[in-house]
């Protein structure tokens, strides 16, 4: 048999035998490619370092890392801290605060279990002599109330950590009696209280005010009322219409003009309207000056003009003006008896509540001197039910 000089055609297709020269050329090309690739990697790494630094410096302008580190705190961005602020101190101006507080959700349903609260807003220049009495009033009703205190700017309220008043001061400004700064303080209290979405009713009190009923009675009376309690009446005298300034027209006319007690109670809807108002407030600030007192006319007039159907036109804070003069009668320790407190609770007055007559017209009373605290504490369980 003759040896084959070359493989069969089928074998040649599956077992090719390239010449040695082609193998050498391929090796040289591979080494060259590897050298070029490694050089490119080295150059690329060097360039990317400079690019990364440049890119980071540019993106820092638009997306600063420090901002994200500072503001992405879970508690800061939590839903709970938005609907129920735990800390009352802030750096907002009044203009910023009023804008923020005037925001009203469009959705009727709340995305959390909302229990309506009553906001007790205290306006004082200094100490609150009846803190102990109020703490007894609030005890056992946590989650149904909030406390807010407006004082002199530099005053520090000294109460125990267990008190309902602890850490409840709001950012405050100087207030002068008889001036528009009283209205500013009222709106400031309302605005801070509106930041808590669970606050449904808002009552203004002073350091000389006391409750004359227990908490449950006060809470149910306010939360289930169809109306707010702002005294608003037309007084044809120098102390009423005589305080109207004709330069307020045509925006505010004489027949709009009303007078009432400063010590009001509002539902959430009206509180938001008051905080949001700027047009009518500016008119009062400009033209209602002594002997016109903005705190006695601004809110009664504004509600009479726009929201009279939502207002009861009376106050829930009792006060004694029978002695005459610019200030009501004050009551000290010697005046505090069981009969006196009962006479405030049932003083023969008949008023309407949810369009029905009632003898329960006053939930709070003023004006009490600090030395009345002891007798009030001794009588609170018998006279006021707490």
TrEMBL record:
Q: Which GO terms describe its cellular component?
A: membrane
**InterPro entries xrefs:** BC10-like, Glyco_trans_14
One of the Pfam families matching this protein, by short name? Branch
Q: Where in the cell is it found?
A: Membrane
List, in alphabetical order, the Gene Ontology terms for molecular function in this entry.
glycosyltransferase activity
Q: Is the Metal-binding keyword given for this protein?
A: no
UniProt keywords, alphabetically: Glycoprotein, Glycosyltransferase, Membrane, Transferase, Transmembrane, Transmembrane helix
Major location (coarse): membrane
Membrane topology of this protein: Single-pass type II membrane protein
Q: Does the keyword Membrane apply?
A: yes
Q: Which residues cross the membrane?
A: 23-45
Report what the protein is called. Core-2/I-branching beta-1,6-N-acetylglucosaminyltransferase family protein
Tell me the classification of the organism that encodes this protein.
Answer: Eukaryota, Viridiplantae, Streptophyta, Embryophyta, Tracheophyta
């Amino acid at each position: 048999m003759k040896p084959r000089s070359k493989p069969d055609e089928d074998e040649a297709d599956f077992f090719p035998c390239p010449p040695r020269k082609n193998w050498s050329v391929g090796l040289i090309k591979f080494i060259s490619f590897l050298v070029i690739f490694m050089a490119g990697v080295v150059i690329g790494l060097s360039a990317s370092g400079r690019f990364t630094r440049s890119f980071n410096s540019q993106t820092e302008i638009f997306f600063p890392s420090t901002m994200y580190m500072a503001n992405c705190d879970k508690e800061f961005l939590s839903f709970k801290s938005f609907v129920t602020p735990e800390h009352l101190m802030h750096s907002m101006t009044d203009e910023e605060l009023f804008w923020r507080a005037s925001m009203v959700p469009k959705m009727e349903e709340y995305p959390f279990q909302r229990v309506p609260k009553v906001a007790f807003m205290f306006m004082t220049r200094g100490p609150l002599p009846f803190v102990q009495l109020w703490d007894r009033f609030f005890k056992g009703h946590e989650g149904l109330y909030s406390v807010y205190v407006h004082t002199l700017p530099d005053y520090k309220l000294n109460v125990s950590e267990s008190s309902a008043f602890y850490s409840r001061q709001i950012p405050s400004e100087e207030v002068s009696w008889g001036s528009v700064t009283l209205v500013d303080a009222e709106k400031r209290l309302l605005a801070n209280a509106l930041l808590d979405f669970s606050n449904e009713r808002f009552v203004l009190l002073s350091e000389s005010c006391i409750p004359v009923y227990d908490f449950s009675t006060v809470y149910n009376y306010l939360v289930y009322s169809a109306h707010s309690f702002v005294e608003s009446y037309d007084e044809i005298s120098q102390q009423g219409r005589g305080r109207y300034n004709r330069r307020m027209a045509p925006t505010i006319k004489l027949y709009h003009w009303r007078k009432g007690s400063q010590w009001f109670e509002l539902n959430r809807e009206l509180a938001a309207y008051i905080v949001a108002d700027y047009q009518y407030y500016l008119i009062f600030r400009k033209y209602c000056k002594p002997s016109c007192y903005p705190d006695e006319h601004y809110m009664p007039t504004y509600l009479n003009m726009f929201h009279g159907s939502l207002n009861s036109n009376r106050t829930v804070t009792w006060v004694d003006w029978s002695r005459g003069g610019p200030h009501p009668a004050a009551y000290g320790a010697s005046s505090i008896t069981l009969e006196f407190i009962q006479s405030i609770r049932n003083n023969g007055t008949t008023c309407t509540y949810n369009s029905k007559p009632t003898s329960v017209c006053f939930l709070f009373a003023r004006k009490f001197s600090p030395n009345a605290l002891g007798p009030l504490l001794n009588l609170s369980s018998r006279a006021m039910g707490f």
